[in-house]
Amino acid sequence: MTMKAIRCAIYTRVSTEQGLEQDFNSLDAQHDASQAYVRSQVHAGWTPLRAKYDDGGFSGGNTDRPALQRLLQDVRAGKIDVIVVYKVDPLTRSLADFAKLVELFDRHNVSFVSVTQQFNTTTSMGRLTLNVLLSFAQFERELTSERIRDKISASKRKGLWVGGMAPLGYDTKGRKIIVNEAEAERVRSIFRSYLKFGSLNRLMAELRKQGIVTKVRTLRTGETVGGIPFTRGSLAHLLRNRFYIGEVWFKGEVLQGEQPAILDRDLFDAVQAKLNEQVNSHKAMRTKSRLC
Questions:
Q1: CA end-to-end span of the chain, whole Å?
Q2: What is the pLDDT of residues 231-247, one digit of tens each?
């Protein structure tokens, strides 16, 4: 006996268009999680529909959204059995609208599933819980924060550049991180010079003598920042930055980044060994001075 296919439509939404131009954005993160959940239910006959229902830059305060309206049309046409969302709030933030949607889904025998909250409107308890949650004003704020963190986390784990200030040696172009060759050579020179002098203070003095300064950045206002002499702190941060060997540091993990490496790993490792040697030497000296 052939199992009946359960047709699953995945719906995603974000309130703003900011970040949607990135290769892996919040809509993608929601879709990936929802699709993984559908795949986990393949034993029950769940099958994802090819149609995409993504609303980027639309508020959840009403149902006037193009992708949602297409979704509802397909519900009425009997093309959908289950609607899958990452969390409740992408569907709606309005309790009144939610009640109307659930009524429509019930009328057409369509179930509603929230992946991360494991709610299913085929049960009365599921509907009650969803109504209670939607009645809390704080719910939306918390979910928004979580969604941003999830999106950043998912992007970083894929090695994608998530924005911010590019370090010396790199520039950003079209939301991509690219190598600035002139600055990259400056970075390589700083690393080689540190091995030569073996001291942050001596290296700092040499850089000032040569007129080598921090990265100059132009703000949206047209104002420029940076272009100042290196301090011990900024110099130490540069020498410890794994970004230069094509890696990123995230929540205690070293991950492969999308940016091209501009440093040879042997040179980077040699600098790390010298820095650690300096740190251990200073600790030993402080310990000795306290004991004397």
A1: 86
A2: 999 999 999 999 999 88
Q: pLDDT band for position 152 (50/70/90)?
A: low
Asked whether 9 and 35 are in contact (CB, 8 A), the reply is: no
Q: Is the CB of residue 58 less than 8 Å from the CB of residue 92?
A: no
Show the tokens assigned to 174.
Answer: 């079209």
For position 137, what pLDDT does the model report? 41
**Sequence letter at residue 187:** V
What the chain holds in terms of domains, given with CATH numbers, is 6-157 (3.40.50.1390), 170-291 (3.90.1750.20)
Rounded to two decimals, the pTM is 0.48
How far is the C-alpha of 67 from the C-alpha of 57, rounded, in Å? Answer: 11
What is the per-residue pLDDT across 78-109, written as a single tens digit (0 to 9) for each? 999 999 999 877 888 777 787 788 889 889 99
Q: Buried b / exposed e across 253-287, counting CB within 10 Å, b at 16+?
A: eeeebebebbbeeebbeebeebbeeeeeeeeeeee
Query: Rg of the chain over CA atoms, in angstroms?
Result: 26
The residue whose two tokens read 């009997």 is: 78
CA 274 to chain centre: 33
